[in-house]
């Protein structure tokens, strides 16, 4: 049932996934559902809704990713990082969150789904010092754009950018982003069967 739903949502969104990737996505939903009570992972309780609100909402970002190395800041249970890692096995994803129990959940997912391209990290983002800058800094339901840029300015490589997944855009928030950053592109995302507006902001340092 869930597998058929996923297949039709992927077709609607024009996203290609192998049978194995589809199985991994469904298994991820199963683990989110199984461990949600114990780990308090998401307010979305039903697997059918998780498919739309978490899996598809993450996957629609995939066609817009540029580069090989990404960090998902404030990833919680691995959103959008884990669905994107499943769909893009050639890209690497650091999944960072300050809450240990969410990182423990991600490690369990990593083992059960045999994901070799994710690295769960428990840290506050402000304190995290990577050896190398990232091509992309992903965020979803993390912080205001201004706070996110202030806390994460040290993370992208010189050519890297921020990929901020947002709901309804707040004009005041957009107008007030720090002066040394510029919104390069504002993309409207279409998530099958989701009524709410979704946007992806691509932001670059203008220094
Ligand atoms: C609302 S949740 C969003 C989780 C996920 N990105 C999603 O879309 O479902 C925000 C997450 O950010 C984490 N977080 C908040 N401040 C943080 C910080 N300074 N450094 C790292 N993680 C942080 C929280 O622990 C929480 O898991």
Describe the structure.
The protein is of the alpha/beta class. Helices cover 38% and strands 25% of the residues. It has seven helices and seven strands. It has a seven-stranded mixed beta sheet, sandwiched between helices. α2 packs across α3 (47-59), α2 (19-39) packs antiparallel against α4 and α3 (47-59) crosses α4. Residues 74-76, 79, 96-99, 102, 124-126, 140-142, 151 line the site of S-adenosylmethionine.
Structural topology:
Blueprint: H1 2-12, H2 19-39, H3 47-59, E1 69-73, H4 81-87, E2 92-97, H5 100-113, E3 118-122, E4 134-140, H6 145-152, E5 156-166, H7 171-175, E6 181-189, E7 198-205
Parallel strand pairs: 1-2, 1-4, 2-3, 4-5
Antiparallel strand pairs: 5-7, 6-7
Helix pairs in contact: 1-3, 2-3, 2-4, 2-5, 3-4
This protein binds S-adenosylmethionine (SAM).
What does this entry show, briefly?
The chain has 207 residues and is α/β, with parallel strands linked by helices.
Please give the share of residues in helix.
Answer: 25-40%
Distance between the termini: 50 Å
Count of extended strands: 7
> How many H/I helices?
7
Strand content: 15-25%
List bound small molecules. Answer: S-adenosylmethionine
User: How would you sum up the major sheet?
Assistant: 7 strands, mixed
Which residues sit in consecutive blocks of at least 5 with pLDDT less than 50? Answer: none
Radius of gyration: 16 Å
- On the 0 to 100 scale, the average pLDDT is 96
Helix/strand class: alpha/beta
Give the H and E element order. HHHEHEHEEHEHEE
Strand ordering within the main sheet: 3-2-1-4-5-7-6
- Shape assignment: globular
Function: Specifically methylates the N7 position of guanine in position 527 of 16S rRNA.
Subcellular location: Cytoplasm
Protein name: Ribosomal RNA small subunit methyltransferase G
GO molecular function: methyltransferase activity
């Amino acid at each position: 049932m869930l597998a058929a739903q996923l297949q039709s949502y992927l077709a609607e969104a024009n996203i290609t996934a192998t049978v194995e990737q589809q199985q991994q996505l469904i298994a991820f939903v199963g683990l989110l559902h199984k461990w949600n009570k114990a780990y308090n992972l998401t307010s979305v309780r039903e697997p059918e809704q998780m498919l739309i609100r978490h899996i598809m909402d993450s996957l629609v970002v995939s066609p817009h990713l540029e580069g090989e190395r990404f960090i998902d800041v404030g990833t919680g249970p691995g959103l959008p990082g884990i669905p994107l890692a499943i769909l893009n096995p050639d890209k690497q994803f650091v999944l960072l969150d300050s809450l240990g129990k969410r990182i423990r959940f991600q490690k369990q997912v990593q083992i059960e789904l045999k994901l070799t391209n994710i690295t769960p990290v428990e840290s506050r983002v402000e304190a995290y010092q990577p050896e190398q800058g990232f091509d992309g800094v992903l965020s979803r339901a993390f912080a205001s754009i201004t706070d996110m840029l202030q806390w994460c300015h040290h993370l992208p490589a010189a050519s890297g950018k921020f990929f901020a997944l947002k709901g309804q855009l707040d004009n005041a928030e957009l107008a007030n982003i720090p002066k040394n950053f510029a919104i390069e592109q504002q993309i409207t995302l279409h998530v099958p069967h989701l009524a709410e507006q979704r946007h992806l902001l691509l932001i670059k340092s203008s220094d």
